[in-house]
Specification:
Helices cover 23% and strands 29% of the residues. The chain has ten helices and 35 strands. It has a 19-stranded parallel sheet that branches. A seven-stranded mixed sheet has the order 5-4-1-6-10-7-11, with helices on both faces. Strands 29-31-34 form a three-stranded parallel sheet, with no helix packed on it. A hairpin with a 5-residue loop joins strand 8 and strand 9. The chain is elongated, with a radius of gyration of 34 Å.
């Protein structure tokens, strides 16, 4: 049910200069989604009446990336006044004037928090009656985070940003996770008092904590049950750390759901991937974006699938695939490259060193090895010999090759598209197929073989090949002479 007394503000306006990137910090991906998208998904799980996402740096780029067509959150533009305090202030201006509930403030660069942790934070805040409750965490290495400064009796006094911290304050290991719950009325009142007297020249939201305490308002702090979930992302080191924590969580969840993951440390699974029970994932495998794997399939080792669909009982080994469909019971790899538009039918095969693109390969059909199949339709029960190439590009346009049911081709064939092979047709080894082949016909490329005797010795004198040829010729003559003597 919707919590009518809860509003959520997500801060996604910062530039993130420490990322040293042209990509806005909140759009850097982990687990298949931008950082801020993880925060939005968590916010949605809390069923707040109002969700506001504040943007500023690269505004259009961020807004486009997070707009998934759902109407349950509103994008708010921060003006030229910098700082998290101003960001929250403009978000509050977009709430109903009479809203008197609680305001949960989340940072778009803190992606690991889960809804149950935030629900507990909100419940503790409401039970305490505090004007504000902050989420904190104890870190062995707190560098880069604001510090929670407490009084002698252990109550929260203020939050100090690292750039403004004294040596004693910087030595504190309790950090501000950038997550707060405020009662709306005192938050509005004290945001007006926040100034820019700090190293950054910005209006810090954290200054509200000190202002509330100065006004004798209660401020509480709740420690995160797992400090790792409170980690923010400020640079690429922390991005990698957050990605690893999230991935370990995803892999563990799938293991508990009945998926066998042989080596979790080398297996990467995006949050958007769907796996059935009894899937087996071997080491060195990456399953990314909208990949779906059916029950009993075996993926890996050393396989990357992006937006792929794998059928029940299929095997995919040492393969790179994107936007491909692999049918039930099919076999792919090792060392296969499936480009977009590949569709392999049930019990089919794409084998060793095969590249496919925009190709439909029917049930029980096989492209076993050393082949390129592009812009092609293959029927059922067909078999392409080693070294098959569908020559689909004429330097101006792409053309299709059509291969019918039960067609068996010889080794080292080239199919010059557009061309069609009828059902049951066969081709000879080395054939170059430029014209359609009728059903049941045998297509051959026949040319007389010419042997130019002595060509190597004449045109490549002094080479190892010429010497070997001369030696072989001499040995053959001696052998022929011996046979003539015996016959005589």
């Amino acid at each position: 049910m919707t919590d009518t007394q809860l509003a959520i503000v997500i801060l996604a306006a910062g530039q993130g200069t420490r990322m040293k990137s042209s990509l806005p910090k909140v759009l850097h991906p982990i687990g298949g989604r931008p950082l801020v998208s993880h925060v939005i998904a968590t916010a949605r799980a809390l069923h707040a009446e109002h969700v506001r996402v504040v943007v500023r740096h690269e505004r259009d780029r961020v807004a486009e990336a997070i707009d998934d067509g759902e109407a349950d959150f509103e994008i708010v533009d921060q003006d030229e006044i910098a700082g998290t305090g101003r960001a929250v202030e403009v978000a509050l201006e977009r709430l109903p004037a009479d809203f008197g509930g609680d305001v949960l403030v989340l940072s778009g660069d803190v992606p690991l928090l889960q809804a149950d942790t935030l629900a507990e934070l909100i419940a503790a805040h409401r039970a305490s009656g505090a004007a504000a409750t902050i989420l904190s965490a104890e870190l062995d290495e707190p560098t880069g985070y604001g510090r929670v400064i407490r009084t002698a009796d252990g109550s929260v006094a203020r939050i100090v940003e690292e750039r403004d911290a004294s040596p004693d304050e910087a030595a504190v290991h309790e950090i501000n996770a950038g997550v707060y719950v405020f009662r709306a009325a005192p938050l509005r009142d004290h945001l007006r008092l926040v100034d820019t007297a700090n190293a950054q020249g910005e209006r810090y939201l954290t200054d509200v904590i000190g202002l509330l305490r100065a006004a004798n308002e209660a401020v509480a702090a709740a420690a995160a049950p797992d400090p790792r979930v409170a980690l923010g992302v400020n640079d690429r080191v922390q991005l990698a750390e957050a990605a690893a924590i999230l991935n370990a969580r995803i892999v563990r969840d799938w293991q508990l759901a009945g998926v066998t993951v042989i080596d979790p440390t080398t297996t990467w699974i995006d949050e958007t991937v769907v796996l059935a029970p009894d899937v087996t994932i071997l080491p060195g495998t990456q399953l990314l974006r909208a990949t779906v794997v059916a029950t009993g399939a075996v993926i890996g080792p050393d396989t990357t699938l992006v937006d792929c669909e794998v059928g029940e009982g299929a095997t995919v080994k040492r393969t790179d695939g994107t936007l491909a469909v692999i049918g039930a019971g099919a076999s792919v790899g090792p060392f296969s490259y499936l480009r977009p538009g590949t569709c392999l039918g049930a019990n089919g095969k794409i084998g060793t060193f095969v590249e496919t693109k925009n190709a439909t390969i029917g049930e029980r059909s096989k492209v076993p090895h050393l082949s390129y199949v592009g812009d092609t339709t293959i029927g059922m029960g067909a078999n392409l010999g080693a070294g098959a190439i569908t020559a689909n590009y004429d330097d101006l346009a792409k053309h299709r090759t059509e291969i019918g049911d039960e067609v068996h081709t010889g080794s080292h064939n080239v199919f010059v598209a557009p061309v069609r092979l009828g059902a049951g047709a066969k081709t000879g080894a080395g054939a170059v197929i430029r014209k359609d082949v009728p059903a049941g016909a045998l297509a051959l490329s026949v040319a007389p073989q010419r042997n130019l005797e002595g060509w190597v010795e004449k045109n490549r004198p002094g080479t190892a090949a010429a010497e070997a040829a001369a030696h072989s010729r001499s040995a053959q003559k001696a052998e022929d002479g011996s046979e003539e003597e015996q016959e005589a």
